[in-house]
Design brief:
By secondary structure, the chain is mostly helical. The chain has two domains: 207 residues, no CATH class; 82 residues, DksA, coiled-coil domain (Four Helix Bundle (Hemerythrin (Met), subunit A)), CATH 1.20.120.910. Helices cover 73% and strands 2% of the residues. It contains twelve helices and two strands. The protein has a two-stranded antiparallel ribbon. The radius of gyration is 24 Å and the shape is globular.
Length: 340
């Protein structure tokens, strides 16, 4: 188990503070990776991450000062009756997602997709905090929370993008927090916090369903033709992916003994870089194809997932896995899709 403080030179540092900082670093890394995978402009996305971190950090600081003032001058204030851990966690969670609605409107991004990405990031940082609590204070409920969070993260990571509709993951995450918290962490005021989380989850589902309520007006025979193209493309990409695995220089038999020359190693490293780049492109396209097939199954194919308008048939013919209309394809990666 870990001590409550770690000695750095002559000054002890709180262990949970160190774990929280590590969790924040991993949170930013996960958001960056998932935003890049979804095709968002990473520089703009870092602006969003910075704003969320700054806003929640300032709110955390001001709230701690306010509570400290109440403890001294207003000890009977109702705010002090609430559990501080739940209060601070709830405030940070809510305020960190507020900038999403400003930036998505500004850049014409899908708020539901970004909320899903944030849910993965929140799961990571909560895993760090729960693991730290267990290792320091030996509280079994935090170990259970860590295991459940890890299970949820792996499930969402596996199916996000083509089996789970955008926006659904955020609602699952909020409902998960409310249900698990009400079972494991029944602290002062817990019903208030968990009721708000459930309300947010239901509201998110309602808004998502309202946005996608309209059925596509594309003829069935046109969609059926594109579906066959997508199925063939998915099979072709799967074969290409398997071929790239076989061609990976690092996986060749006898590699450890054959590469004795420096030039051989350089050639091998170059081939590995090219193979990894091609593999990344293939995986990204496969995800897009699976998402398009899922949209066809749900009857939502041909509807832009950003603005909710119909995607032009010419774009779908040239790029059947397109999930956004041309006017919403504003970032660099989406513009490359349009050129293709």
């Amino acid at each position: 188990m870990l001590a409550e403080n770690i000695n750095f030179g002559f000054k002890p540092v709180n262990t949970m503070l160190v774990i929280t900082i590590l969790g924040l670093v991993c949170w930013c890394f996960v958001l960056w990776c998932e935003s890049k995978k979804d095709g968002f402009n990473t520089l703009k996305f870092f602006d969003l991450i910075f704003t969320s971190t700054l806003l929640s950090g300032v709110a955390f600081y001001l709230l701690s000062k306010l509570i400290g003032w109440y403890v001294i001058f207003k000890p009977s204030n109702p705010l002090l009756r609430l559990d501080r851990e739940l209060l601070f966690g709830f405030i940070v969670l809510v305020l960190s997602v507020v900038p999403i609605f400003f930036y998505t409107r500004k850049w014409k991004w899908s708020a539901f997709r970004i909320l899903d990405i944030y849910s993965l990031g929140f799961s990571i940082i909560l895993m760090f905090l729960s693991a730290g609590k267990f290792l320091i204070y030996s509280q079994k409920e935090y170990l259970i929370l860590f295991i459940l969070l890890l299970t949820l993260y792996l499930f969402v990571f596996r199916y996000r993008g083509y089996r789970l509709m955008s926006g659904l993951i955020f609602s699952i995450f909020l409902t998960f927090l409310a249900v698990v918290g009400s079972v494991l962490f029944r602290k002062d005021g817990y019903l208030l916090f968990y009721l708000i989380l459930v309300t947010m989850s239901v509201s998110n589902l309602y808004l998502r369903g309202k946005k996608t309520m309209a059925r596509t007006l594309i003829p069935d025979n046109f969609v059926a033709g594109l579906k066959q193209k997508l199925i063939k493309k998915e099979r072709s990409l799967e074969k290409t992916q398997q071929q790239l695995v076989r061609e990976d220089p690092y996986l060749q038999q006898g590699r450890d003994t054959d590469n004795a020359e420096v030039m051989d190693e350089v050639t091998e490293d170059t081939g590995k870089s090219i193979t990894d780049a091609r593999m990344g492109i293939v995986k990204k396209i496969r995800i897009q194809v699976k998402r398009a097939l899922t949209a066809i199954k749900l009857g939502k194919y041909g509807i832009c997932e950003v603005c909710g308008k119909s995607i032009d048939r010419a774009r779908l013919t040239a790029y059947p896995e397109a999930m956004t209309c041309i006017s919403c394809a504003t970032d660099i990666s989406q513009m490359e899709e349009v050129r293709e």
